[in-house]
Amino acid sequence: MPELAEVEFYRKRWAQVATGARILRIATHDGRRVFRGTDVPALRRALTGATLVSSHAAAKQMLFCFRGGGWLGLHLGMSGELFVAPPTHEPGRHDHLVLYLRESALVFRDPRMFGRVLFHSGREAPTWWTQLAPPILSAAFTLEEVAAYLRRRARAPLKAVLLQQERFPGIGNWMADEILWRAALHPARPAASLSPAETRRLWRECRRVCQLALNCIAGRGQSLPADLNVGIPRSWLFLHRWQEGGRCPRTGCRLARATIGGRTTCWSPARQPRP
DNA sequence: GTGCTTGTTGGCCA
DNA sequence: GTGGCCAACAAGCA
Fold this sequence. Notes:
Layout: H1 4-18, E1 25-28, H2 40-47, E2 52-58, E3 61-66, E4 70-75, E5 81-85, E6 95-100, E7 105-109, E8 116-121, H3 127-130, H4 143-152, H5 158-162, H6 173-182, H7 196-218, E9 256-260, E10 263-267
Antiparallel strand pairs: 1-6, 2-3, 3-4, 4-8, 5-7, 6-7, 9-10
Helix pairs in contact: 1-7, 6-7
This protein binds a DNA duplex through helix 6.
């Protein structure tokens, strides 16, 4: 599930209770796939007794920064989630990392283990964080950059291109479909086949969907919706895409579904004509 | 039992 | 070397 806005939602969940708080104890499922490439003993040593100073979300990645130079990175993969539990929480089968505070426990749960826990110790931020592509909502995400990328991936279907994290950080399957639907572009269109006006539409809708998704899913300011999808309007493709016999919220026509770019893709044939 | 699944990576091939 | 495609990873769900 977790794409850009959902990642921010989960970051806030932990940040709201944990910022400024001290980690008293840590539970880990050592040897699990989510810790691949990570020095778990070093993580435990560094973070036990450490205070969370700040946290950030970028792309599908989160960073939790601790006083003294501990950097905890989390990627939620396909099925990961973060939640806050009582301090007596007993780690379940899929709770691979639990950080215990005085009054609560921060739980990272991931049944399918496509997610990842990263850890870095030192003064400088780790490269797995600093080398992320510039955010879609930053000034660096320009129309020109998008146009150049579409030329480079000339023959790839738009759907596959939008899933490339090196240019569209944080976009996942549902956001890609939402963007193409709003931009009225068929997901199978080859990247190089877009007119300048269509390229501009794609660029604009990338930014718009990211901004709207953040507002709806991750809330504004300090507020946080109770549930992930509770704030998503019926006017979005998102709420219709998995329904059997789902209809396009704009045209009322039946939605289509097929595998494009290796992923299940939903589009509105009435709105997004064939290439 | 079968056949899916909102992510990423590495291998193969043109 | 680059780009495109696909299987693999693991578990849950219908």
